[in-house]
Amino acid sequence: MLTYLVIVFDSTHYAIKTEKLMKQVNISGRLIPTPGNLRAGCGLSYKVDINLKKKVLTLLNEEIGQGYEVFEIKKSEKGTDSEQLTVLNEFN
Amino acid sequence: MYYFDNAATTIKKPKQVGEAIFEAVTSEKVGNPARGAHSYSIDAFSAVYEARLKIASLFGASDELAVAFTQNATMALNIAIKGLIPSDCHVITTVLEHNSVLRPLYELSQRNVNLSFVNYDKDRQCLCYEEFEKLIQEDTRAIVCTQVSNVLGDIVNLEFISKLCQKYNLLFIVDGSQGAGLVPFNFDRLKVDAFCFTGHKSLYGPQGTGGLIVKSDSQIKGIVSGGSGNLSFSKKHPQELPDRLEAGTLNSHSLIGLSAGIDYVLDETPEKLWNQQIKLTSKMREVFKSMDSISLYGSDTQSIGTLALNIGQVNASDIAMLLWDEYRIAVRAGSHCAPLVHQTFKTIEQGMVRFSFSSFTTVEEIDYAIEAVDAIAKKIR
User: Fold this and answer.
1) What ipTM was predicted for this assembly?
2) How far does the CA of residue A39 sit from the closest CA of chain B (Å)?
C-alpha cells in the first residue's frame, strides 16, 4: 500500500506558492493535476510524502492559512485498486 | 537618433530584458502557466509567480496574489474603475488625468455616477488640493487620480489624498502608468484600493504587460471571464485573487521580460533612478526657463521624467516635426490623451511638445536637445 498526502487548493496560485514554500525548506513534493475524485475540473494539487505530514501541515497553516484541503491517500502498489481517502482537518 | 518619448514607452530596455524574453521564446520550455503539471507549465507558472512577488515587493504590497496582470495600464484601470466603483454615486478625479482614467469614468455615467474634477493652479504649479475635501459630498465613494501627470510630469501628493480617503472612507484608485518604477510608492502604507501600472515604461519591460494591485479582501468585480485552469465545471469564473481579474492565457513570455525589467530597477535602485531623472528634468527645465520664447508647463520643483513646452505660438506638431526632421530628436506633440490638461493651459489647438526621459537618457543628449530647441526658437523669432 502507498500512502501519501495530496493538498487540493481553491486557487492554482496557492499551489505554486506552496511548491515554492516547500522547496525553501527542502520538502520535495511535487505538483500534480488535481485528481478528479478529489475535486473535479482541472487545477493543480501538491503531492508529498506522508512522513512529512506534520511539517507540511504546520507550514500550510502558517503560510497559506486557507483555501486548501489535505487528503491522505492510500493506494495499492499497482495504483489500480481501491483508494482510501481521509480528509485531514487538523488545521483547516 | 535622440529618443525623448519615454513617457510613451521606453525604447531602450536593459540588455537582460531582451535576453530573458529571447530565452523564454526560444528555450522551448515556457508552457501555459497553471494549465498542467508538467515542467513546461509549472516553470511558466513559477516565472509568472516570481513576477507577482517582485511587483508586490517593489510597490510595498504584502499580498502577491492580489497582483493581477493585464496587457496594459488601460485594461487595469478599466478593471479597477468599473469593478470597484458602485452605481449611483459621486466620484472625484482631477484635470491631470489621462483618457485611460477619464473615459472609463465617463462611461460610468450610464450607471448614474457623477464626476467632479479637482483643478490645477497654474500659479502655484500644483493641483488645487484644498478642492478635494470641498468636493466631497454625501454620496462620494471614490477618488481616482494619477501618480504622475503624463504631460507635465507633476508628482501628485498621494499621501494627502490617501489621508482624505481614509477620513471619509472613500475608495482610492491610483493610475501609476507614469510613476511606477520612477516614484517611490507603498501600496500598503497608502491604503490604496487599486494601483494600476504598466510594464513598458519605467519598469523597462516589454509592451503588452501591466496590471493592478488590489487589497487582499477587495470586493472588486472582475470584468472578464473564461479559462482559469481550475474549477472547469463551475459556470462562474473563479473568485479567488488574482483569478477574479485574469482570464485566459497570460502573456508569460513578456511577463518574464517584465520580471527582468524589475530586476534592473531593483539592481540600479529606485533611489538612484529617481535622482538621475530629477537631475535631467531639472537641468532641462532650468535652461528652458531662461529662454524668453519658451512656455514651460507644470511644476518647477515637483515634476519628474517629463517636460512639456511650447515655442511662441507655433503649433506643437510643427516643432515636433522640425526636431525630428532636422535633429533626429523624437518627442511627442499634441494633446497626449489628457484633454483637461490642455483646457487648463488653453493649449487645445496648439498642443504641447513633450520631452520625456529614461534611465538611459544622458546629459549629452539633454544638451543636444537644448541646443536644438534654442536654434529652432531663434529661427522662429
Assistant:
1) 0.81
2) 8
pLDDT tens digits, B14-48 = 999 999 999 999 999 999 998 888 999 999 999 99
Residue in the block written with cell 492580489: B66
Upstream peptide bond of B242 is cis (omega within 30 degrees of 0): yes
pLDDT tens digits along B131-162: 999 999 999 999 999 999 999 999 999 999 99
Contact residues on chain B for A41, CB-CB shorter than 8 A = 230-234
C-alpha span between B373 and B370 (Å, rounded): 5
* Grid cell of B55 as nine digits: 511587483
What is the amino acid identity at position A64? I
C-alpha–C-alpha distance, residues B205 and B207, integer Å: 7
- Report the chain A residue with the minimal C-alpha distance to residue B66: A13
From the CB of residue B335, how many other CB atoms can be counted at a distance below 10 Å? 20
For B232, nearest residue in chain A (alpha carbons): A41
The grid cell for B19 is: 535576453
Contact assessment for residue B282 and residue B325, using Cβ atoms and an 8 Å cutoff: no
